[in-house]
């Protein structure tokens, strides 16, 4: 990481304030104001769009292999998603993915 | 499914009435304890998740104060992981902030949906609710309020406080524990893939409807196509495309249903 301590603190403070304002929005300043339907509808899909977009390149081109696609990491990713979809349990999915990755890296 | 025989339905109704009577009779302190008890199962997820954040953030190069700054001031797991991931990719500051905030936009929806139930709370009380408004405290409280619509505002706030305390306090303590452990982990142990696995594990249970699946799929395809753009920029284009696609599918589904 090539970033100064002060910059990291700026990020933490801005993120903290911004997140707080999002949470406070309707309970506080916005009150009963009606927002456009399309806007409220998009909000529902923020996590399910942002997180996959963030993670997809990391899975296909892992930093640890210098960007070369890696069967062990792909398999670990697939196991994590499968476990998460089947059990709806975040902790189990993380464990399954971690064990798969460790096992495959050890064997390959 | 056939409808239950009248006696059974009546029994169920009276059990629901009993639960409501009990809920309405609770003192603020008892309502707080009720929230605590109902929120306890979340600790199974919260504690390992926060430990992992502490370890990963420390490994990425943050010091303990910064790691704790995230967990106390931001207090939102997915966006904390997002920020640390983009920081270790050396993404520009503005992209780190915008992406991590985008993950939290759903909380505006929580805020809007709690307002009818907490309208008569004081501004100070609302300010505290906003601070502790996380996925788990929201999900439990809205269920509780809708099930027992006649609760007083004090009972509602006390229940929320109990539910939130059991999520937020262990989040902070376990982050600290993880950061402490993280400093002791030698640098040569590969933790590079801990974060992608965590994100995938968070996403999988969210894929509840066709609209969620489409949002996820469009975001992935766009992110892969735009991966050559400067660090983080592809994300800022891919995510809104996914959100729009999800919203579009939802509209279509509603039109078909009506």
| Termini Cα gap of chain A | 29 Å
Continuous helix count of chain B: 13
- Strand fraction of chain A equals under 5%
Extended strand count of chain B: 0
- In total, the number of domains of chain B comes to 2
Percent helix of chain A:
over 70%
For the sheet with most strands of chain A, the description reads: none
Given the helix and strand composition of chain B, which structural class is it? mainly alpha
Shape of chain B: globular
- The percentage of residues in β strands of chain B lies in under 5%
Secondary-structure-derived class of chain A: mainly alpha
Q: Determine the N-to-C terminus distance of chain B.
A: 24 Å
Average residue pLDDT of chain A: 88
Rg measurement of chain A, Å: 19 Å
Spans of at least 5 consecutive residues with low confidence of chain B: none
- Count of strand segments of chain A: 0
Write structural notes for this entry.
Chain A: It comes from Paracoccus rhizosphaerae. Chain A: Keywords: Membrane, Transmembrane, Transmembrane helix. The complex is a heterodimer of chains A (108) and B (258). Chain A has 108 residues and is mostly helical. Chain A is 72% helix and 0% strand. The relative contact order of chain A is 0.06. Chain A contains five helices and no strands. Chain A has a domain at 34-107. Chain B has helices at residues 6-25, 28-39, 43-59, 64-74, 77-88, 93-104, 106-118, 123-131, 135-147, 153-184, 194-203, 210-225, 233-257. By secondary structure, chain B is mainly alpha-helical. The longest helix of chain B has 32 residues, at 153-184. The model of chain B has no long low-confidence stretch (mean pLDDT 87). Chain B has two domains: 20-188, no CATH class; 207-258. Chain B is globular and about 65 Å long. Helix content of chain B is 78%, strand content 0%. Classes of the chains: A mainly alpha (108), B mainly alpha (258). Chains A and B meet through helix 1, helix 2, helix 3, helix 4 and helix 5 of A and helix 3, helix 4, helix 5, helix 6 and helix 7 of B.
